[in-house]
């Protein structure tokens, strides 16, 4: 038998929405508001007892929707003329084992399961009622009957309160037994009965669908393509100096400087960027893609690796957001040609590339002038689907 119960109030007319059906039975992207609310309840960590309060004429319809949405026996009872009376009808149907009660508006149909879990955790932690709320972002005025402004309310002490509201059952039962007024939320009754209630962080998705504009906002949220997260990659490369070689680094030729050893031209900056891009796209690494002894890349310039890597990344459905790379080594003196290097690399990749350089203050092999290391990060974005 359940410790926690959720009373889903769905018996309102939805006058402000102006739909032909009572609001909880209005369909949003293929599911009714009631079904969507029950799906969120079904995702709770702690399986609750569920009581649905529906319009008397739709109790059978509600039971059918609830059984399909929640996948277990749901108690459905007829509601009353006000929200408070509907909640009271739901409380009367609770099992004896229930210790914590959440009261939730079916009208808050996009509320995520995580908020239900959060208020259960918080009511257990506090030992008293908790209600989710969001800061007020508009300026709030107290106005008279003809609209004259009496006061600008200090919104820093206000909270826009949502549901699910969670209470120890004893507090909620006592508050409803002692009710002498009709309140718009359960916290008001519980507080009026002398029981503490705390506001805890709410969720923007738990907004109440009240007007046609709210329904449109909910529809657009469900229609909006989920923006895939960007992808980041990391790459490093190290090359020892080879006095017999010409120096090519960061896509530039460095006449008169000591070159770098390697199967290719040894451009550690270009190679680190290549690995960062390949890892961000989950395409492996420079050795796996280009090999370490393929004759076609013998002495190949960094630009060859970078332009081919760009093609592979774009073929995989990404576009390059930006790249950042740092060269670690005593030579060459990089700063005079930083802008030139960034322009060349950005041109090859078609995206911003920033290059910095540093030394290890004489420590390690780079500090002893034996070679250089480059470390690169890359950010990839999903290409818009054409
Ligand atoms: N007599 C009522 C009134 C409201 N509710 C429920 O309480 C929640 C919040 O109420 P509200 O958004 O005001 O819904 P309605 O009363 O239907 O809307 P309106 O005020 O526009 O008629 C809703 O899930 C609604 O179904 C209820 O169960 N019984
Ligand atoms: C319970 C509630 O959703 C908390 O904000 C709100 O009070 C319900 O008000 P309504 O007028 O019944 O929609």
From TrEMBL:
Region (2-C-methyl-D-erythritol 4-phosphate cytidylyltransferase): 1-230
GO MF, one example: metal ion binding
UniProt: a divalent metal cation binding residues: 237, 239, 271
Cofactor: a divalent metal cation
Site positions (Transition state stabilizer): 16, 23, 263, 359
Domain of life: Bacteria
Protein keywords: Isoprene biosynthesis, Lyase, Metal-binding, Multifunctional enzyme, Nucleotidyltransferase, Transferase
Matching CDD domains: CDP-ME_synthetase, MECDP_synthase
UniProt keyword RNA-binding, yes or no: no
Keyword check for Nucleotidyltransferase: yes
Enzyme Commission (EC) number: 2.7.7.60, 4.6.1.12
Reactions accelerated catalytically: 2-C-methyl-D-erythritol 4-phosphate + CTP + H(+) = 4-CDP-2-C-methyl-D-erythritol + diphosphate; 4-CDP-2-C-methyl-D-erythritol 2-phosphate = 2-C-methyl-D-erythritol 2,4-cyclic diphosphate + CMP
Domain 2-C-methyl-D-erythritol 2,4-cyclodiphosphate synthase, residue spans: 231-380
GO biological process annotation, one example: terpenoid biosynthetic process
Family recorded in the similarity comment: In the C-terminal section; belongs to the IspF family. Belongs to the IspD/TarI cytidylyltransferase family. IspD subfamily.
Family annotation (NCBIfam families): ispD, ispF
Protein purpose: Bifunctional enzyme that catalyzes the formation of 4-diphosphocytidyl-2-C-methyl-D-erythritol from CTP and 2-C-methyl-D-erythritol 4-phosphate (MEP) (IspD), and catalyzes the conversion of 4-diphosphocytidyl-2-C-methyl-D-erythritol 2-phosphate (CDP-ME2P) to 2-C-methyl-D-erythritol 2,4-cyclodiphosphate (ME-CPP) with a corresponding release of cytidine 5-monophosphate (CMP) (IspF).
Name of the featured protein: Bifunctional enzyme IspD/IspF
Gene name of the record: ispDF
